[in-house]
Design brief:
Helix content is about 50%, strand content about 10%. It has 19 helices and 14 strands.
Length: about 425
Amino acid sequence: MDPADALATLLSPTGRVNPYPVYEQFRAHGPVVQAGPVFSVATGYAEVDAMLRDPRFGVMDDALRDQLLPGWRDSPAVLSISRSMLRTNPPDHSRMRRLAAGAFTPRRIAAMRDVIVAQAEELVDRMLTRGRAGAPIDFMDEFAYPLPVGVICALLGVPAADRGLFRRWAADLTGVLEPEINPAELAVADRGATELRAYFTELVAARRRSPADDLTTALVQAHDTDGDRLSGDELLANLIVLLVAGFETTTNLLGNGLVVLLDHPREAAALREHPELAPGYVDELLRYDSPVQLTSRMSTEPARHGGLDLPAGSWLILSLGAANRDPRRYPEPDRFDPSRPQIQPLSFGAGPHYCLGAALARLEAQVAFPLLLRRLPGLALAGAPQRRVRLTLRGYASLPVTVGDESPLTDRGTPAGAPGATP
C-alpha cells in the first residue's frame, strides 16, 4: 500500500477505529513520508519528537485556514479552537499559556491527590450500587467521564450541578480536531461550540460579579486588567479548551487503559498488589494505546526530517500513536509491558505545546487504576466495547462492565488482616 492509499485508509471509518495496522503501512516507506499533495505523515518516534520541538514547525495559522476552510471565521467551532493556546504560535501562545500555567504547577497538582482519591472512591461506591447483582453498567458513564470532568470543573470553578452538560457539547466540538471534516460534521461541531461559548459567557459574567478562587476568575481578571494580555475571544476560547482538554484526554486514557488491563490479567494483578507501580503502568498505557493519536504542524522554513525534504509551507500529520509504537524506540512495541525501561510516550506532545494538564491527567490515572483493581477485583467486560469513530482523540463511546463483589476491605482501602485493620 503506497502512502496515499494508506492515508485514505487511515481517514476512513475502519482506519479511525483501528489505526495501528495502517501506521505500519506508512512505516514501511520510512519514518516521514509524502502522502499526497497536501499531507506528509511522520510515524517515527525520533522524527515526531524532533518536529514537535523544532521552531520551524508551528500549528496551522490563519493564512492556511483561509486556504483550506474559507469562511472559517463564521464557524464557532473553528474560531474557538483557533483563538486558544491549542492553535496559536509564539508569541501569542506563550502569552496565553503563562496565564493558565499557575493552576498546573507541580505543587498544586500534588495537592489535588486527596480530592481525586475522594472523588474516585465515591464513583466506585456508585458503581457498586448500580452494578449490584451483576447488572452491567457503562464504565465511561460511571467513572471515566465523571472523574476527570469533576477535577477540571473544580479547577475552573464550574458548579457541580452543571458538569453533566459538557460531555455531548465537547464530543460535538472535538470533531473539528479531526484531519478532515465535512460540512455536516462541522455543523455538529459548531453546535457544541455555540453551547460552550454561551455557558462560559454566563460564567464569566458571574465571576465578574462574584470573584472566586478559581482559574476562570484568574483569566477574567487578566482580561479585565489588561486586554492586551487576553482578548475577549481568547478568554472564551481558552476556557473552552481548558475544559474540553481537561477531561476528554483523561476520559479516553481511563477507558483505553481499563480495557488493556482487563486484557492483561497478570499485569493487572501485579498493579493491584503493588500500587506504587502506577506511574510506570500509566506511561505504558499512554504509549500502548494513546488517547491522542495525532497532531499537525506546518513548516515555516525549509527543513529535512526522516530523510524527507520539507519545503516551507509543508503540512505534517505527526502520528503520536505510531511514534509510541516505533520499534526503533521500543522493542516489541505491540506488547504491553509496564516494566520496559525509559517509557516516554509522546501522547501529550513535546516542545512548546506540551499538554499543560499532562501531570494532572497522569495523577488521575495513577490514582484510578490501582483503586479500581483493588476494590473491584471481579471487574470484567460485559460485552464488546464500542469505539468512537474518531482518529485524533481515541476512546470508547461505551464500555460495558460488571463490577463483581467488592474486595473484603475494611476502613476504606485497608486489606483485612493488614496492620491497622479493624479485627
